[in-house]
Amino acid sequence: MNIxxxxxxxxxxNKAIIFYMLGVITFIGGLLITQPIARAALLVFAAIVAGxxxxxxxxxxxxxxxxxxxxxxxxxxxxxxxxxxxxxxxxSFEEAAMLILIFAGAHxxxxxVENKSRKEITALxxxxxxxxxxxxxxxxxxxxxxxxxxxxDQLQILNGAQVPTxxxxxxxxxxxxxxxxxxxxxxxxxxxxxxxxxxTINGKSTFDMRVTKSSDETV
Length: 219
Hints:
single chain, alpha+beta, Calcium-transporting ATPase, cytoplasmic transduction domain A, 2 domains, six-stranded antiparallel sheet, three-stranded antiparallel sheet, about 55% helix, magnesium, translocase, nucleotide-binding, ATPase_P-typ_transduc_dom_A_sf
């Protein structure tokens, strides 16, 4: 059911973008026409087609907010639609269409950036290690969940393993790939006393570290 729901939402977004592009093309066509009635009709059509989704969202959001707050609470989308309607009423068809095109375009761009950021954050969380090799009081090693780590715990990081949380190297050296947090693909050489960050990958020899941040505070 969730898959169908997500698929339906994606289809709606794709349809809205297609209609937006159709609105842009219609707007350009309207600018090229000199016949007043045909020009006005195309520009109004462009505004409706390009902005139908944001206008619909504005109406629904306004209704929901008004019911919740028990007073009229217009959404910014609705206000933009009313401004465009006012421009049409006074014969400023080009301005009305341009207002909707700019606002709808900004809306789609904002959604794209948010979705991209959400996917990147999800990918980073998926990459985060779930277990760590922790030294016990006797010096033996035990494998524990990362969520069980405490500040001050001493860990062993094997060659090729991910650093489970932020800390400081207390023995050995490391060559860490920090691309996951900095975007820099060149490994950084670390030695005793240097800070290391959770999620980075150890590409050199095994080293020991002391935890300085809990897993929910790590980078």
